[in-house]
Design goal:
The chain has 213 residues and is mainly beta. It contains two helices and 13 strands, in the order ββαβββαββββββββ. Helix content is 13%, strand content 33%. β4 and β5 form a beta hairpin. The longest helix is centred in the first third of the chain and has 17 residues. Bound molecules: N-(carboxycarbonyl)-S-(naphthalen-2-ylmethyl)-L-cysteine and fe (iii) ion (FE).
């Protein structure tokens, strides 16, 4: 009998939310982390601020690809350049474009890869991602480094939520009815991974921003 090699189908957490646990091997995680470190040398992490108040977020961010998400007193937006250097964002590594093609189920390439960097005390409050013009495209999230406790709800802030862990190498795809789900990071479980030298967690989110022509 020939052996049939099948891609993992992933675990459906709720309609449209699919978790590919341990999708990346340790070797792939190290290669990807190396590429992200190199990109962050070109486009350093910055601390976004809340619109209007200017209150800093606890997460530091940068971006890869043609567009990047930024937030400051003026508001949230996507832009083509780093807010401090004014230079274009570094290219997205090919392995992220390949991953998107494998799990995203969407014909056009991602335009933004938001890099979120969490130290042991950083969190992200419950929010929706709605600064993109195209909600028909999925968001693909890749976790590296320390595990986090992640919270996922429905499309209304008051909908019930469930929480689960995201570990290094896990890939989460948010599509369809989960694309506009409320979600956040409750806490980082410090010391759960050796991937990032100084500890902490890096999350990459691949996104479409504009409507594919
Ligand atoms: C569910 N990042 O960058 S990734 C964000 O771990 C963000 O850094 C978190 O929320 C992090 O906006 C969560 C998983 C994720 C990303 C986008 C989603 C879950 C999502 C969009 C809709 C629903
Ligand atoms: Fe989000």
């Amino acid at each position: 009998m020939p052996v049939r090699i099948e891609a993992h189908r992933g675990l459906t957490i709720q309609p449209g939310a699919t978790l590919f646990a341990a999708r990346l091997s340790r070797f792939e995680q190290e290669a990807l982390h190396g590429e992200i470190r190199a990109a962050l040398a070109e486009a350093p992490l910055f601390r976004p601020e809340m619109p209007r108040t200017g209150k800093p977020l606890s997460v530091r961010m940068s971006n890869l690809g043609p567009l990047g998400w930024v937030s400051d007193r003026a508001g949230y937006r996507y832009q083509a350049t780093h807010p401090l250097s004014g230079r274009p964002w570094p290219d997205m590594p090919q392995r992220l474009l390949d991953l998107w093609a494998e799990v995203g189920g969407y014909p056009a390439a991602p335009e933004a890869c938001l890099v979120n960097s969490y130290d042991a005390t950083a969190r992200m409050g419950l929010h929706q991602d709605r600064d993109e013009a195209d909600f028909s495209a999925p968001i693909v999230s890749v976790s590296l480094g320390d595990t986090c406790r992640f919270r996922l709800g429905g499309t209304s802030r008051t909908d019930p939520t469930r929480s689960f862990e995201l570990a290094s190498g896990d890939v989460l795809v948010l599509a369809g009815p989960s694309r506009l789900a409320f979600h956040g990071v409750d806490r980082i479980l410090a010391g759960t991974s050796t991937l990032v030298a100084d500890g902490g967690r890096i999350n990459l989110t691949l996104r479409r921003v504009t409507i594919a022509g």
